[in-house]
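To fix ideas at the outset, we first show an illustrative case, written as a sequence plus integers encoding its fold:
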Amino acid sequence: MTRIVDLRSDTVTLPSPAMREAMHNAELGDDVFGEDPTVNRLEEMAAERLGKEAALLVTSGTQGNLVGVLAHTNRGDEVICGDECHILLYEVAGCAALGSLQLRPVPTSNGRLDLTAVRAAIRGQNVHFPRTGLIAVENTHNRHGGAALAVSEMAALVDVAHSFDIPLHVDGARIFNAAIAHGVPARDLVAGADSVTFCLSKGLSCPVGSMLCGSHEYIARARKYRKMVGGGMRQAGIIAAAGIVALREMVDRLAEDHANAKLLAEGFGGVPGIEIDLASIVTNIVMFRVRPDVMNPEDFRARLDDRGVRVGSPLPDGRIRAVTHYGIVADDIRHAVQAAASVMPVAAR
């Protein structure tokens, strides 16, 4: 049987034994009525960990961002975001389709929004312009190789947003990876932000779910939008039970994923024909390129897959993503590096 090392995403994680046990034994109720004690407990824990008043369990990061943005804005508003952010590229234009919102992208470098460009993009009072209703930032940044914004960088963005009385939303799908990378509590990274989402089903290894955190008033609005888009769940404590285990047991272990990502980057960097910036590897995402004069990137991905090593499909610019996560150990990384070396043409070795 072919050994499988799946590095396509940290969404492929499977729940831990402790999660499975907690799900089996979860105390349940009807969450739409606010009566599921396990969901209520998870929402309290999430709010406390992120330093916010309240939290809401949602089905996915995409749903969390959608209802999170809707709860801040009005139809016809404009949302400033990064030009390679997840909300813009990978969420099916939900803000436009369901919120009648216009996304206004600004340049992003190494996961950082250009603050000068953000200021310039904020609309003035003019009958021809939409209202700037929200600024959104992603931390860590998926397309930028897991780049992790520091506390000072997040605070600077808060200052810009609030100086114009505009709320700031943080797409924090992997905010705990950023916290581990910088050695700070996650709440410090989002201290001034008006809302933040984080995923339970990526590095935290739950089977499903994300959290949206903010003020009591804000989460009440978001809860209604969640119901509107079909996200009201009944005995959702089965899901929430895994989330409770995740917040208790799975955050600190993200450091293992970061160490494995560095090991993978160093290994791939030693394979002739692969190009990688080792200094850019700060969390659990490894972005690399296969030199097109050596091998077509899609052929490289397919040949790796034949050997049981799965990585992401090449992006339009030729970059390939590999993501370390729970269930991947150092020996898997060594196996992946050996497989990468074996598929390269002899002339490149």
